[in-house]
């Protein structure tokens, strides 16, 4: 008798259980710095974001680009990325099609980032920090910043 045939009328075999969900990778160990380094870096980042806010408010695209890392420019200028961003609800509703980094600046950055407020920073390593704002009690990452040749730049995860 064939127990695997569909027409068999004996005891049904339960389907194999679904494989368990893969576990999230462990968080990298927290990068710790002294209070002095945290304070100095916080001041540097606060100044950087203050200047960035002014540049964004003034809609100064060419200066804004100088605040970006090469990786950020490359990724954010990619046509596939721009197309995906154009599909976001607000842009799609307003029929905005992003075609360049400059379009991204005027249609995404200017409306959303000109009043960014830094509340804390989180070190990822000595040259990468998350700039964080507290919005209605929730920590929100404003920017991932990377130090390139001694200067802070907007980077990517």
Strand order, sheet with most strands: 1-2-3-4
Total of domains:
1
Low-confidence runs of at least 5 consecutive residues = 1-17
* CATH architecture heading: Roll
3D structure, described in words:
- The chain is built from six helices and four strands, in the order ααααααββββ.
- The chain has 157 residues and is an alpha+beta fold.
- The chain has a single domain, classed as Nuclear Transport Factor 2, Chain: A (Roll), CATH 3.10.450.
- A hairpin with a 2-residue loop joins β3 (138-148) and β4.
- The protein is globular, with a radius of gyration of 24 Å.
Could you provide a short overview of the structure?
By secondary structure, the protein is α+β, with helices and mostly antiparallel strands. The chain contains six helices and four strands.
Set down the secondary structure blueprint.
Layout: H1 35-57, H2 61-65, H3 70-77, H4 79-86, H5 89-93, H6 101-113, E1 120-125, E2 128-135, E3 138-148, E4 151-154
Antiparallel strand pairs: 1-2, 2-3, 3-4
